[in-house]
Amino acid sequence: MTYKIAFFDTKPYDKTFFDKANDDYGFDIRYYKGHLNENNVVLTQGADAVCIFVNDIANAAIINTLVDNGVKLLALRSAGFNNVDLKAAAGKLPIVRVPAYSPYAVAEYALALMLSLNRKIHRAYWRTRDGNFSLHGLMGFDMHGKTVGIIGTGKIARILIQILKSFGMNILAYDIYPDAKIAEELQFTYTSLSDLYHHSDIISLHCPLTDQTRHMINEDSISAMKDNVMIINTGRGQLIRTEDLIEGLKNKKIGAAGLDVYEEEGPYFYEDKSDKIIDDDTLARLLSFNNVIVTSHQGFFTKEALKNIAETTLKNIQDFAAGKPLENEIKNESNE
Q1: What are phi and psi of 212, to 5 degrees?
Q2: Which of 37, 45, 84, 272 is least crowded, fewest Cβ atoms below 10 Å from its Cβ?
Q3: Residues 110, 113, 117, CA angle at the centre, nearest 5°?
Q4: 335 pLDDT tier (thresholds 50, 70, 90)
Q5: For 125, phi and psi rounded to 5 degrees?
Q6: Alpha carbons 307 and 310: distance in angstroms, whole number
Q7: 81 contact partners, CB below 8 Å, separation of at least 6
Q8: Of 35, 77, 158, 236, which is the active-site residue?
Q9: What is the 3-state secondary structure (H, E, C) of 125-174?
Q10: Taking the complete model, does pTM exceed 0.85, yes or no?
Q11: What is the pLDDT of residues 202-261, one digit of tens each?
């Protein structure tokens, strides 16, 4: 009997990579364009597994409906799972994820945001398209010799640290669980958050979203930072209280911000809204700054990452179907 998978929030690239990976498994994948929600959860009837992404909803009501519909497994094709009610799923519905797909992709993207903001590449691109070849307002600074503060020192951060060390930059890092061996190997220094804020020319966020880290970048932490600091966020949108970030930009405390995530990104990111008015006033305000780059959560978006996501997701489902231990199962614990 062929295992049936209901696949939500399907984009063309999802289908391309999952169809190719599925050649090795032969699952019956039924692709749906919409986000999983209470209005379309009926589509999961008859499915053995449901596959969702970061903006799909898996609250208690939906999880209970999935169970009632006979769904045996919820498979996330993402690392984060703060869109899933783990307490509601406990004992009812196993959940698996893709814990890592390409740390190089996200680390390299964080660097791209730094370089683009520093050297004003985004502004230069639009100027020259209009025939304006003036350099006024495009001055940056040498990255060499500057200090970067890295918050969170997991796989992505460690790759980014290696890249930034090759630029001749000084690295300060903060992690609730510091790894002295890695710090010695990569030649960076663990310090307190207050020292990191005080000394860093650039701050890059790579920590998980928890109750402790939610809105860690706020009015108080921004006031402790160096003037003209650059803030990069390729982690989770809710690490930053956006209203406070905007105030920091307005009063020139923050010199630039590169945001691949946004705390209220769900209705917008991954969708084409070009023919509509952005009615999120906070997002619209962010987009109005010429020293801010907002991108649509695309840091992971490389061929290698999509291939790994598809292969790991389908292997997770195959392991469950075969009764094997679930290496990537999520237990009822805080988001990683």
Answers
A1: -80, -30
A2: 272
A3: 150
A4: very low
A5: -60, -50
A6: 5
A7: 95, 97, 330, 335, 336
A8: 236
A9: HHHHHCCCCCCCCCCCCCCCCCEEEEECCCHHHHHHHHHHHHCCCEEEEE
A10: yes
A11: 999 999 889 999 999 999 999 999 999 999 999 999 999 999 999 999 999 999 999 999
Q: What share of the chain is helix, strand, coil (3-state, %, to 5)?
A: 35, 15, 45
Which pLDDT tens digit goes with each residue over 268-309?
A: 999 999 999 999 999 999 999 999 999 999 999 999 999 999
Is 265 among the catalytic positions? Answer: yes
Above pLDDT 70, what percent of the chain? Answer: 98
Other C-beta atoms closer than 10 Å to the C-beta of 253 total 17
CA distance 2 to 318: 11
Active-site residue, from 35, 97, 265, 311: 265
Residue of 35, 206, 241, 297 marked active site: 297
Quick one: pLDDT at residue 80? 84
Residue 332: what pLDDT?
Answer: 67
Is 243 part of the annotated catalytic residue set? no
Q: Which two tokens stand for residue 303?
A: 């061929």
